[in-house]
Automatic annotation (TrEMBL), chain B:
Gene name of the record: purS
UniProt catalytic activity: N(2)-formyl-N(1)-(5-phospho-beta-D-ribosyl)glycinamide + L-glutamine + ATP + H2O = 2-formamido-N(1)-(5-O-phospho-beta-D-ribosyl)acetamidine + L-glutamate + ADP + phosphate + H(+)
Known EC number: 6.3.5.3
Record function comment: Part of the phosphoribosylformylglycinamidine synthase complex involved in the purines biosynthetic pathway. Catalyzes the ATP-dependent conversion of formylglycinamide ribonucleotide (FGAR) and glutamine to yield formylglycinamidine ribonucleotide (FGAM) and glutamate. The FGAM synthase complex is composed of three subunits. PurQ produces an ammonia molecule by converting glutamine to glutamate. PurL transfers the ammonia molecule to FGAR to form FGAM in an ATP-dependent manner.
Protein name: Phosphoribosylformylglycinamidine synthase subunit PurS
């Protein structure tokens, strides 16, 4: 038996299918979840994919955060359900206050799309265990609102507790404080990042690297051995 | 009928590149002497019925939980009388 990993589709989600594909390639079973459905259909973990849910109206992730499916995701994430937020999914997680801080427009005010070098800072979370701490990886990045901000106290806390999961290397693409590309909650079950690991799982496409695959093998191993 | 206005601004310590872009355009337009611009959002809520303390409290909750993200933004709530005589 393999693990069932849900992928939520909001109106305006773009990368839900790619995420399902990445989950399948890792050997788990993807389960499509619908934003209007509170029922998570007994999945073992949830991915909130990239895109522009609700057109990013008000703030990126602000309206999705109040969707019926998120009611259950928020409740279960607090009880330990593994949740990964990619790009827009990361924005939803900060709006839902499952992760601290907030996301704002890139400091240069342009959309950005590039192959981004990252350093894995925390390889102890549910979604990063197949990496090693300090490992350098390349993951595609594409966003408008990728600037991670938090107050000084929150930043100090994240740094002190090792909760910066990924950091931009060589180039800060959006003005994120402390070069933060992704963070984890205290328990390590909720992780959010701006770059798109689901776009780096097959050698034939993109940069030709499969540096994103360990996200999905990490969670699979955790769920299957649990 | 009354209108309640919710103004939302980025917290002062947070960089506002849109405001900066506006500010940098000002000298070209012949506007001197403006040293800083910050851009925010204004929500106008048309309220049915009286805007009493209870209604204002509900709007305050709405602003705090939805219209603003208080991790990165501050907000103010104020009542604006709508002139109906014009109709």
């Amino acid at each position: 038996m393999t693990a069932r990993i849900g992928v939520v589709t909001f109106p305006g989600s773009l990368d839900d299918r790619d995420t399902q594909r990445a989950i399948r390639l890792a050997g788990a079973e993807p389960v499509a979840l619908w934003h209007k459905d509170k029922n998570l259909h007994q999945v073992d973990a949830v991915v909130l994919p990239g895109g522009f849910s609700y057109g990013d109206y008000l703030r990126a992730g602000a309206i999705s955060r109040f969707s019926p499916v998120m009611e259950t995701v928020i409740e279960q994430a607090k009880a330990g359900l593994p949740v990964l937020g990619i790009c827009n999914g990361f924005q939803v997680l900060t709006e839902a206050h499952l992760l601290p801080g907030g996301m704002l427009g890139n400091d240069h005010l342009h959309f950005i799309c590039r192959d981004q070098k990252l350093r894995v800072e925390n390889a102890d979370t549910a979604w990063t265990a197949d990496y090693s701490a300090g490992q350098e990886i390349h993951i595609p990045l594409k966003n408008m609102d990728g600037r991670y901000v938090a107050d000084r106290y929150t930043l100090d806390e994240l740094e002190a507790e090792g909760r910066v999961a990924f950091r931009y290397l060589d180039f800060n693409p959006n003005g994120s404080l402390n070069d933060i590309a992704g963070i984890t909650n205290e328990a390590g079950n909720v992780v959010g990042l701006m770059p798109h690991p689901e776009h780096a799982v097959e050698p034939l496409i993109g940069s030709g690297r499969t540096d994103g695959l360990p996200f999905f093998t990490s969670i699979l191993k955790k769920l299957v051995t649990a | 009928m009354a209108r309640v206005v919710v103004d939302v601004m980025l917290k002062p310590e947070i960089l506002d590149p849109q405001g900066q872009a506006v500010q940098r355009a000002l000298p070209r337009l012949g506007f001197d002497g403006i040293s800083d611009v910050r851009q925010g959002k204004r929500f106008e809520l048309e309220v049915d019925g009286p805007v009493d303390e209870a209604a204002l409290a509900r709007i305050h909750d709405l602003a705090e939980s939805f219209l603003a993200n208080t991790v990165i933004e501050d907000f103010t709530v104020k009542v604006e009388e709508v002139a109906e005589a014009a109709k």
